[in-house]
Amino acid sequence: MHQQDKKGFTIIELMLAMSVVALLLLAIATMTMQMITIMTKGNTFRELNAAGRTINDDFTREFNSIYGLGEWTGRVVNDPTADAYYVRNGDSGAFCDGKSSYLWNLYNNRRRDVADDIHFQNGDPIRLVRVSDPTRSYCQDKNLWTRVPNNSNVKNILSEGETGLMLYDIQFSTAPKLIDNASNQSIVNIAYVLGTKNDNNQINVAGMNCNPTGQYKDYCAINKFDITVRTLGRK
């Protein structure tokens, strides 16, 4: 009897097969990482735009529910005064419409943190909040900026969220030609820049873009929002 020849894979065939499997696994891993990156960027932009819609909706409802802005014609002051409606002081500010007051701190890239000139009583930082304030006290007394109560009278309009959202700029503007003296209606333009935290100098605010470098580049997003609102006018 003749012994049958033993059949099997040679070492070279096994190495080739393992190489093909390794390449397939590498390709799958690369595609998975690319999909995760795309999803991360998409989630970041979605959270940014959702925050912008929330802010826009709040501004619209607020200004559409007030009858006028008194004597305000667009004037901005650096320190609170008895007749102030709009105060900006460094990276912080307040806008008081006679029903509520908006308080904010801007992201300060020099300190790589949100400014803390305005904060809650417990010391927690504020990004953008709306406070019930019919007497416009936050535009008349800066001492109140460090004693904002964290209660039902304060609505936190912008939270940090999962991607570290920051307010980079905000401007309120109007002009005498946008005020109807007969009806006391005012048209107000509100422009603000919203973005993720600036890690490793990723964000170019002036150029409104994210540089494709840095550890957190996939979480980088910035956008400018511009909204025009109208007050009700006289009762």
Automatic annotation (TrEMBL):
Pfam family, any one: N_methyl
- Where are its TM segments located? 12-36
Identify the keywords attached in UniProt to this record, alphabetized: Membrane, Transmembrane, Transmembrane helix
Protein known as: Prepilin-type N-terminal cleavage/methylation domain-containing protein
The source organism is Candidatus Nanogingivalis gingivitcus
